[in-house]
TrEMBL record:
Protein name: TolC family protein
Location of this chain's protein in the cell: Cell outer membrane
Keywords linked to the UniProt accession: Cell outer membrane, Membrane, Transmembrane, Transmembrane beta strand, Transport
SUPFAM superfamilies linked: Outer membrane efflux proteins (OEP)
GO molecular function: efflux transmembrane transporter activity; porin activity
Organismal lineage: Bacteria, Pseudomonadati, Bacteroidota, Flavobacteriia, Flavobacteriales
């Protein structure tokens, strides 16, 4: 039986797709990390807990309402719950109660707890967003490291191919007696060295891929790879701003600073809650209860009063208010207030420390961008000069005016210069993106 051409093409396309290795873009890596990072999941659960705490605080401000019922039997001398008389008999009784209570005033502690719960939910959101920002930076750095290692590998492979061509030509010249065999051995040594550098570069690519895969919590390291794309140094005017301007801008939106500020607010709210224990607590209550007993007889007819009738006859309502005035509690309230004051000071100090850390990071990033920019420019100039020197050496070598050792040294210097350019380029790109990130510019590689 022959299958239709369309089905054959469909099956062939599926086979090809399954056989191809997926290539991850930077955006895919970042999104995947956000969705699968275990720490992010833990912080998201903390955020859910904070939202539940807000519900608890709101519920504490509402009146409670509870129903209770009980049934019991007594044999011998017992108190009849409906008549309050002692009787010697077997008594079966049922009682029920419905009650509600409400805290009218407790030093505004419930109000402060509700506000604190709202603030805590916001603080946990700040912490979660800050973690996502850090993960995004780490993923971008690991991604760029793979690209850097891949470019270095391509350079070594291209150099190796060129060296093999030189080696074949030199072998012909040696066979013809035009150049000494030492030149051939020298180029063979250069080719062997490049083979070793290729192996090392392949290992660096593998290690950097594994590093990124671990960040993404992907265990299939062998089949994990990123897309074959290259990035050039993007245009940026970030250095038109001073480091102080960048720092002041970062203070307005950085999630870690907002989180520290929220912790100060939480500590102050805890202090208000602790102070609320100095005040009296006023609460109100209302209860409805009723009961039934199989020993409750009608005094006129002598008949047992029915269950429903007893519930109406024996019911009652109690209500009232209660005030609790703290006089002496073994210094527990005072000590709690003092601990809260200490927590406020610690939170304020932590905020100052976080601001200093941010300022240090911004200043360091600013210096890094300047230094790596100069290093990249210097590496490009060095590479250009060494390529010119190599071209000149190649002309001399081809003309028989330079030995293989000197020619090999010229090529090695080009190799080193190209490796320095690649390293400087990606270091510069990453530092540039970090500094822009502190200024509020999203990390996007073009």
């Amino acid at each position: 039986m022959k299958l239709p051409t369309s089905i054959l093409l469909f099956l062939f396309s599926i086979t090809i797709a399954l056989g191809q290795q997926r290539k991850w873009t930077l955006e895919e890596c970042v999104n995947y990390a956000m969705e699968n990072n275990l720490t992010i999941e833990q912080y998201e659960l903390d955020l859910e807990n904070a939202k539940i705490d807000k519900s608890d605080a709101l519920g504490a401000m509402l009146p409670d309402f509870n129903l209770t019922t009980s049934a019991s039997g007594n044999t011998g001398l017992a108190l009849d719950p409906t008549t309050n008389n002692l009787v010697s008999s077997t008594i079966f009784s049922v009682s029920g109660n419905a009650g509600s209570s409400l805290t009218l005033f407790d030093g505004l502690r419930n109000v402060h707890r509700l506000n604190r719960a709202k603030m805590n939910a916001i603080a946990n959101q700040y912490r979660l967003e800050n973690l996502k920002d850090d993960i995004g930076l780490n993923v971008a750095n690991a991604y760029l490291q793979i690209l850097s290692n891949k470019e270095s590998l391509k350079v070594y492979q291209a150099q190796y191919e060129g060296t093999l061509q030189d080696l074949n030509r030199t072998r012909d010249l040696v066979a013809a007696g035009s150049v000494p065999r030492g030149d051939q051995l020298e180029i063979e040594a250069t080719a062997a060295n490049l083979e070793q550098q290729i192996v090392n570069a392949e290992n660096m690519v593998l290690i950097s891929r594994i590093n990124l895969a671990q960040m993404l919590q992907i265990t299939d390291y062998e089949n994990f790879d990123i897309s074959d794309e290259t990035f050039e140094v993007p245009p940026s005017d970030i250095l038109n701003n001073s480091s102080k301007e960048i720092y002041e801008k970062a203070l307005t939106f950085r999630e870690d600073i907002k989180f520290s500020e929220a912790n100060v607010d939480l500590a102050n709210k805890d202090l208000e809650i602790a102070k609320g224990a100095y005040y009296p607590t006023l609460s109100a209550f209302v209860n409805y209860n009723t009961r039934y007993s199989d020993q409750n007889y009608d005094p006129v007819t002598g008949d047992l009063i029915g269950f429903k009738d007893q519930l109406w006859l024996n019911d009652g309502i109690s209500y009232g208010a209660q005030i609790n005035i703290p006089i002496f509690n073994g210094f527990s309230v005072r000590n709690s207030v003092e601990r809260s004051r200490i927590s406020v000071k610690k939170a304020e100090l932590q905020l100052q420390q976080d601001k200093l850390t941010l300022e240090t990071n911004v200043n360091q990033s600013y210096v890094d961008v300047k230094s790596y920019s100069k290093a990249y420019e210097a590496a490009l100039k060095t590479l250009e000069a060494r390529r010119l020197a190599y071209d000149y050496s190649k002309e001399k070598y081809d003309a028989g005016l330079m030995n293989a050792f000197d020619y090999s040294q010229a090529q090695t210097r080009v190799d080193d210069a190209e490796a320095q350019v690649i390293s400087a380029k990606y270091n510069y790109i990453f530092r540039l993106k970090v500094l822009e990130y502190y200024f509020g510019i999203p990390i996007v590689l073009n």
